[in-house]
Amino acid sequence: MIKTDILIIGAGPTGLFAVFEAGLLQLKCHLIDALPQAGGQCSEIYPKKPIYDIPGFPEVLAGDLVDNLMEQIKPFQPGFTLGERAETIKKLGDGTFVVTTNKGTEHNAPVVAIAGGLGSFEPRKPLLQNLADYEDKGVAYMIKDPEIYRDKKVVLAGGGDSALDWSIFLADVASEVTLVHRRNEFRGALDSVEKVQQLKNEGKINLVTPGEIVGLKGEGKLESVTIRKTSNAAEDIHLKVDEFIPLFGLSPKLGPIADWDLEIEKNAIKVDTFDYQTNIPGVYAIGDVNTYPGKLKLILCGFHEATLMCQSAYQRIFPDKKYVMKYTTVGGISGFDGSKKEAPKAVVKAID
């Protein structure tokens, strides 16, 4: 059985940053993730997608953000159980928890932090009769490596941030980019909408609104799509393409965690914003997996939640100790192996 101070379910950005904050408090962490690598969606779905709202980084690729977080937590030597899904939880008589994965690996900790992001997820697919015939043959539901689309004719469909952001990014990669959305209004950030409109005016993006993809054709591989102008059904457009990427979002599911007697609201875990604890004392939920009044599903909000969660976890693990945390400009980081790294740290002084 693997023993640790804080067992983190989910190795995405929020879970990884929780390791850092816990390490500053000299708490050991172990992470479980169903994916075969750390990083969550940032590694699995869009490692090359630029992120613009991480403080101190005007722009950072999702994969690079994960690499930086992994480097940041290295002194604290977290453990990882990857490629396994957290399946069950049981509270022991001593107040600690045992979490068992689908492969039977058991983990024991006094604190469990659920940082599962959107949980397990499936892409929302358009209702096209022969769609499955072209999956991995010109149809993809996520972009891992944009270089695949270098000098190709690409059609994207969707009206959210992903569709807008990837249209902007691929405008400098693909030979031709067409964005199709069934409404004239987009759901994404206003800045992205304005950028897409600017690229359209410059002739770098073809924008079809309102419209939708109604047909796919090709012998063994996608060769063309049919776009219906929904304002005038007579104006069907038959467009030769190499790749079609419908970006209609993900359909999230909590998976086995939904059966842990947690208080659930709209497929998210309700928490107390004092410390992001769930209705089960000792079990916390941080990042996109939780919900509370005013919740924003942003990575930077997950970082904040992880920080407060670790403070509460310390108090739970050491109820008879008080500590004083100073600013992170004092001293260096002390690794669990005794090594010393000269870098900012929070100094914790425990007082019995």
TrEMBL record:
Residues 5-293 form the FAD/NAD(P)-binding domain. InterPro entries: FAD/NAD-bd_sf, FAD/NAD-binding_dom, Fd--NADP_Rdtase_type_2, Ferredoxin-NADP_redctase_2. It catalyses: 2 reduced [2Fe-2S]-[ferredoxin] + NADP(+) + H(+) = 2 oxidized [2Fe-2S]-[ferredoxin] + NADPH. The keyword Flavoprotein applies. Keywords: FAD, Flavoprotein, NADP, Oxidoreductase. Its EC number is 1.18.1.2. This is Ferredoxin--NADP reductase. It comes from Maribacter cobaltidurans.
